[in-house]
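A common beginner's mistake is to predict each chain separately and then try to dock the pieces by hand. The better habit, illustrated here, is to supply every component at once so that their relative placement is modeled jointly.
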Amino acid sequence: MELRARTEGVGRMTLATMPEYDSTRLERVGSHAVVIGASMAGLCAARVLTDGFEEVTIVERDSLPDVPAPRRGVPQAQQPHVLWEAGRATLEHLFPGYSAAVLEAGGVKVDGQTEFNNYSNGDFLANGDRSFAIYSATRPVYEQIVRERVVALGRIRLRSECQFTGYLLDDTETTVEGIEIRTEDSDSEQVRADLVVDATGRTSRTPALLEYHGYQPPALDEVQIDAAYSTTFIQRPADDHRAFGALAEAPRTRGGVVAPVEENRWLVSLHGVHGDHPPTDYDDFVDFAASVPATEIRELLEEHPPVDGEIHHYPFAANRRYHYERLSRFPEGLVVVGDAVASFNPIYGQGMSVAALEAVLLHDVLATGGRVDAGLRFFDRTMELVDIAWTMAVGADFGFPETRGQKPRGTTFFNWYLNRLLRTAHSDGALTDAFVQVLMLERPPTTLLRPSVVWRVLKPSGGVRQALHRQVEGTVRR
Ligand SMILES: Cc1cc2nc3c(=O)[nH]c(=O)nc-3n(C[C@H](O)[C@H](O)[C@H](O)COP(=O)(O)OP(=O)(O)OC[C@H]3O[C@@H](n4cnc5c(N)ncnc54)[C@H](O)[C@@H]3O)c2cc1C
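With all components supplied together, the output reads:
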């Protein structure tokens, strides 16, 4: 009871409690919808909007490649992108055959039980009994497949090299009726729509545009972590599917991740927080890897040649979350999704999964109440999901005393409990299973407070038990 009370602020919306995606539930709610941004959140939103709108237009400022390739508008694409089960299962619902397509594109099916090695609190977590798979690939592969499937749906017009510049509101400034864009051929063009979805990521201009149109902008939560990622690729034997994760955790500011990806490569990524940034030179990179506790990461770098020796660097200053759900006034005809609402320290790799789950919630919001008040109803529905990802990411960040920002309620207690759980999971695979399901957004963090889990976490360890026993014996003898 006490444990639950201390973490009551943490949401419960995950894959386990998500409404089932059924395309037929959404009847026609409008004739034209516009999505701004053709990355993961925008593409997933566009997919569900085709169920309720005659036509959907996606507006994207980049020119879009025909093959999986990094692009300017998604600068994080060179960095590791793990697709957790909640995201994979949701993408599979939205785009049947998605997981198989990842493998066809060269992605690797990692046996999560035996090939995914997770280091935390001083050792690797024990293998659990639950078997699960991780479909591992580079970020451009995940996005390319979604983009191809969205385009194949028909009824979607994908307009690349179009820059969104502003919203068109009605005379009373209460309803968004479309957007303004700039293309190579025109200074400005108006695109009318019954619903506009902002999926422009961290650089979203919606807060500023709301203010411009006389609305209160959403409150911004920023949690400063001053992190950076450096990533390279090394050659991998085709049948070696091992993956490693040894994330920075207080007081250790450095961490690393290794993931098998397409073209028989391992993606090796190192990170550091609070200014302890990984280098951009290959030799220094290998040295930095030696300071990450899972020695396997350095060994892999020494034993397997680099693909091209290039290091891709990405600074990540702060977690950012706009509290749209706290607004009481918001224009009709507008919804904001994905990183445009919240972008978390990617250390826990949740952004793509949150984007996919949000699309299912957007579908549900439209299916249950049509377009009326869709924005505020959507923010209300997604709040718990965003809460979970946010709480986990910034919770880990607040393990470091240097972290600045608003600490969610219950963080200190939850960190203490989670660290104890992870230490116990070095020898108790049932706890590894419980933790991984939370990590993968399959189940809410509150499941870690079930009596069966709490008992395993809090029961005295062998050493403590013996010490207690000795103390009791001593007391009795005296
Ligand atoms: C270093 C790093 C590592 C990450 N690792 C993981 C991971 O392991 N797992 C995971 O699930 N997530 C990870 N993420 C998060 C993930 O990348 C995002 O959550 C995911 O891409 C969803 O973002 P989005 O679609 O909302 O926005 P974005 O991916 O940022 O895309 C925004 C899109 O909008 C377009 N755009 C922007 N402005 C305009 C405009 N004015 N007009 C037209 N188009 C515009 C951009 O070109 C882009 O295509 C990571 C993020 C970072 C930074």
